[in-house]
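Below is a filled-in request sheet from our internal design queue. Each sheet records the structural input a requester submitted and the sequence that came back. We keep these sheets so that new team members can see what a complete request looks like end to end.

REQUESTER: design group, bay 2
PRIORITY: normal
MODE: inverse folding
CHAIN LENGTH: 645
BACKBONE (tokenized):
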């Protein structure tokens, strides 16, 4: 709901606009050159208030013939070439409000910006015209832009002409326009592929160290790969680029060279390509680039190359595993599976630096998952046991939390489908210091669970621990009762003294001490603690939603980028804001780890899941024992869901 003070303010604003525009017409009639400044100021101010104006017009709080205004002011101003800054604001304004305009008015607008691209001499007019086209596509929606198809050839030529006249520092707007242009019509893209693909690759190579240009050229290549009509063509064109990072002699002389030290950027691009393409993969791309990735992973010691190469290998497994598992190296007759096992062996070697191994757990999980999808577990043979033993060895030597988390999650994933087999395997496998691997893994897991990060990993871990607790309670498994692990930290506090931070000196004199509890009790305590975390997170989201509702109108059109991200407030409600997929960490996961984002586990509401499971466990005989070990925070959490009075 729009507040009454804002309604009054916008009415005063419209009154001010009308007065300034009338004054501008009077100045224009007297041949004063100052009139255009009033037009520009009004268009700029109204553009900055775009979202609020939209809301006012849609809800009927303000009566204005927007189409008539746009015809009379911004569209008429597009021909004022003597005043380039006015032309820029006119184009941007019309693009911003294109969603509210009729097809006829939008056609006039599109024809106008094409005229600007073809005839304007000032580069800033060309850039603003391209930005206005970008706004148009954003506002109307790419799937609703049929009317723009006839203008695409002129806009494409305008983009190329503009880029030939501007410095590198101004490339972003043309590249963003190019990226959105290729998403409008697949058929048109097929007619320009022979010009666009080489340009995109050349820009990628020449400006590989510029993160902004690199990001936009990657987006363009991604769009081409996703286009079914040109996907195989762009894949073919990318092969020499990937090969160039290991063998410059194999590259055609027309392709710009890329420094071997920047190979990680090419690997990142290849990962994007694999994630974007629709199967089947171009067989040449697989045959020529997979060996390059394997070669770099097995021979390089560069941290960034190894990390990006690992992510690229994960993309091969996730996106083209069917083709990959049937592939053999024609030179050595080594299968893809054997190569992947060699990579795993290298990164699970305790001697391999840990800062290069953050992806290893993800790679192992993806490898096992895709092997299981083939319904041919014999492809692994006895190798799975060897991999898990190597994971145990790496976990034992690891000192980096992110690597430890990644390795522990390997067992968490396996437990979801093969709990009994995993527990028996760990129990029968020797661990360090004479204990079993089960004791070692569970000790490491439960003592580090509260340090885990990432919505996906936390969900997988908590669900696996829930399964283990249910298994232990149902089967009265002594393995979960005899293993003693840390429970709660003991805080020493003398009467009359305030609790202070623990310094190194205090820690050396009085080391941290913890209560000791059976593993089965610790599992229950972990679930209750995560319940409290989820309750706190939900409360924070509710507070943020309420704050954003109150503050939303104050942030209208703070900058150009903000224009593209604004949503109609009527389409947003509190329940949507509280969905896990709207969490910033989850959005980051969607971009960085699509496999995790698309896992059905991500659809689990962890708060509801824990409520249901804890209510079930509270009816079990073990609950009386659990109660004896609960601390105040845990009791409060259970009271909130009505398990304890």
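RETURNED SEQUENCE:
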């Amino acid at each position: 709901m729009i507040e009454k003070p804002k309604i009054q303010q916008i009415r005063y604003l419209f009154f001010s606009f009308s007065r300034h525009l009338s004054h501008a017409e009077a100045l224009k009639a007297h041949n004063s050159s100052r009139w255009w400044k009033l037009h520009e100021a009004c268009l700029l101010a109204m553009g900055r208030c775009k979202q609020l104006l939209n809301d006012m017009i849609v809800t009927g709080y303000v009566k204005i013939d927007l189409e008539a205004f746009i015809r009379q002011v911004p569209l008429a101003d597009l021909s004022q070439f003597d005043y380039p800054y006015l032309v820029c604001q006119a184009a941007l304004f019309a693009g911003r409000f294109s969603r509210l305009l009729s097809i006829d008015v939008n056609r006039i607008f599109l024809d106008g910006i094409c005229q600007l691209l073809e005839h304007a001499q000032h580069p800033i007019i060309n850039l603003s015209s391209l930005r206005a086209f970008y706004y148009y596509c954003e506002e109307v929606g790419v799937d609703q832009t049929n009317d723009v198809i006839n203008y695409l050839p002129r806009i494409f030529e305008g983009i190329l002409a503009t880029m030939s006249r501007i410095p590198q520092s101004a490339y972003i707007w043309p590249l963003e326009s190019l990226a959105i242009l290729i998403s409008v019509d697949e058929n048109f893209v097929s007619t320009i592929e022979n010009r666009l693909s080489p340009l995109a690759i050349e820009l990628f190579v020449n400006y590989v160290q510029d993160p902004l240009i690199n990001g936009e050229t990657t987006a363009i290549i991604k769009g081409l790969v996703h286009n079914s009509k040109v996907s195989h063509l762009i894949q073919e064109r990318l092969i020499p680029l990937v090969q160039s990072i290991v063998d410059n002699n194999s590259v055609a002389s027309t392709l710009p060279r890329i420094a071997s030290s920047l190979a990680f950027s090419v690997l990142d691009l290849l990962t994007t390509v694999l994630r974007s393409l629709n199967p089947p993969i171009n067989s040449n791309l697989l045959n020529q680039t997979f060996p390059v990735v394997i070669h770099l992973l097995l021979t390089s010691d560069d941290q960034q190359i190894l990390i990006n190469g690992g992510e690229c290998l994960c993309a091969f497994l996730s996106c083209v595993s069917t083709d990959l598992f049937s592939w053999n190296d024609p030179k050595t007759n080594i299968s893809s599976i054997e190569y992947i096992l060699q990579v795993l062996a290298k990164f699970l070697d305790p001697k391999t630096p840990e800062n290069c191994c953050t992806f290893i757990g993800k790679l192992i999980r993806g490898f096992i998952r895709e092997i299981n999808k083939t319904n041919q577990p014999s492809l692994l043979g006895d190798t799975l046991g060897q991999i898990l033993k190597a994971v145990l060895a790496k976990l034992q030597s690891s000192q980096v939390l992110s690597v430890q988390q990644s390795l522990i999650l390997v067992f968490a994933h396996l437990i979801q489908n093969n709990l009994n087999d995993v527990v028996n395997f760990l129990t029968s496998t020797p661990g360090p210091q004479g204990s079993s691997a089960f004791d070692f893994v569970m000790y490491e897991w439960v003592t580090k669970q509260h340090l885990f990060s990432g919505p996906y990993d936390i969900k997988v871990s908590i669900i696996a621990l829930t399964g283990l607790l249910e298994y232990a309670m149902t089967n009265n498994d002594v393995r979960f009762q005899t293993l003693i692990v840390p429970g709660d930290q003991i805080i020493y506090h003398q009467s009359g003294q305030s609790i202070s931070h623990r310094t190194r000196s205090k820690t050396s004199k009085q080391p941290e001490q913890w209560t000791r509890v059976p593993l089965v009790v610790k599992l229950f305590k972990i679930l209750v603690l995560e319940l409290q975390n989820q309750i706190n997170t939900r409360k924070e989201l509710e507070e943020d939603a309420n704050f954003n509702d109150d503050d939303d109108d104050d942030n209208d059109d703070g900058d150009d980028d903000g224009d593209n991200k604004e949503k109609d407030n009527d389409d947003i409600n509190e329940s949507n804001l509280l969905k896990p997929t709207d969490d910033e960490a989850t959005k980051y996961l969607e971009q960085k780890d699509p496999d995790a984002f698309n896992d059905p586990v991500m659809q689990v509401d962890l708060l509801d899941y824990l409520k249901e499971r804890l209510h079930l466990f509270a009816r079990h005989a073990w609950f009386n024992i659990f109660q004896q070990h609960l601390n105040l925070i845990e009791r409060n959490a259970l009271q909130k869901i009505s398990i304890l009075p």
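SHEET NOTES:
- Residues 249-253, 553-582 have pLDDT under 50 and may be disordered.
- The chain is about 65% helix and 0% strand.
FILED BY: M.R.
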